[in-house]
């Protein structure tokens, strides 16, 4: 697809009206020039981009009002990429002291990647066009089903009686209550760990042994559960309870080891001024 012409002939159009490049060392479509450069079969420094640009401008002017925006955009993308690539190739290939020159040298691979990306987008666009043209040749069936095929259709079994339908309709048409925002999380009451520990003393002294689930069964919120857990830790620090757990993350058993009378233990507790509250 290459020919040496001396002097170079002016740019011409293919029968389809597409732009054709005519240089002293290349003649053919602009896409072919891009393909040869991306495959390293042609040196970009040997391509006179200014002449290609002038020929393309003349080609667009010759089309008048029938010029193609897609073709112009395609040319600008490819020409800009080739111009960057040519600028990087013209730099010296030896040792580079300037960081800007080094960055241009490293950008050569990115420029080639941009060319390959452009080709990939173009191939995908062609594939989409082929799929669209194939889909335009397909038409849905616009006639009723033939009698010989109707017997093959299974009988519709809904499994819902009229009463069930009435309940579903009532649930759908029932007015929904207006949405409300709870404010319980804003004003949470404080829970006294000291008072909770006193309650647990009385419970454990009476039961002797209980699981943690039993001790928090009557809690109304997470805050109370945490307070009871902290109270158990306080009792453990006072050496009045023992913890037993057979398996990791298993059920926690709390055993009372203090005085049988919890009132005596409560009398020896810290004064009320040191009370700790949680919440």
Explain how this protein is built.
The chain has helices spanning 30-38, 49-63, 69-89, 99-135, 147-150, 162-173, 193-207, 212-215, 222-237, 262-267; strands at residues 12-13, 19-22, 27-29, 191-192, 209-211, 241-244, 253-256, 277-278. The chain is mainly alpha-helical and 279 residues long. It folds into two domains: 12-135, no CATH class; 191-278, Arc Repressor Mutant, subunit A, CATH 1.10.10. The strands form three sheets. The chain has a three-stranded antiparallel β-sheet. Strands 5-7-6 form a three-stranded antiparallel β-sheet. The protein is elongated and about 110 Å long. Residues 1-15 have low confidence and may be disordered.
What would the keywords be for this entry?
three-stranded antiparallel sheet, ScpA, Arc Repressor Mutant, subunit A, disordered N terminus, elongated, chromosome partition, single chain, mainly alpha, 8 strands, 279 residues
Total of helices: 10
Spatially, the strands of the biggest sheet line up as 1-2-3
The averaged pLDDT comes out at 75
- The radius of gyration computed from the alpha-carbon positions, rounded to a whole number of angstroms, is 43 Å
Note poorly predicted spans. 1-15
User: What gross morphology would you assign?
Assistant: elongated
Taken as a percent bin, the fraction of beta residues is: 5-15%
Largest sheet: 3 strands, antiparallel
Q: Got a strand count?
A: 8
Task: Give the SSE string.
Answer: EEEHHHHHHEHEHHEEHE
Measured between the Cα atoms of the first and last residue, the distance is 84 Å
Helical percentage: 40-55%
Structural class: mainly alpha
The number of domains:
2
Protein name: Segregation and condensation protein A
Keywords: Chromosome partition
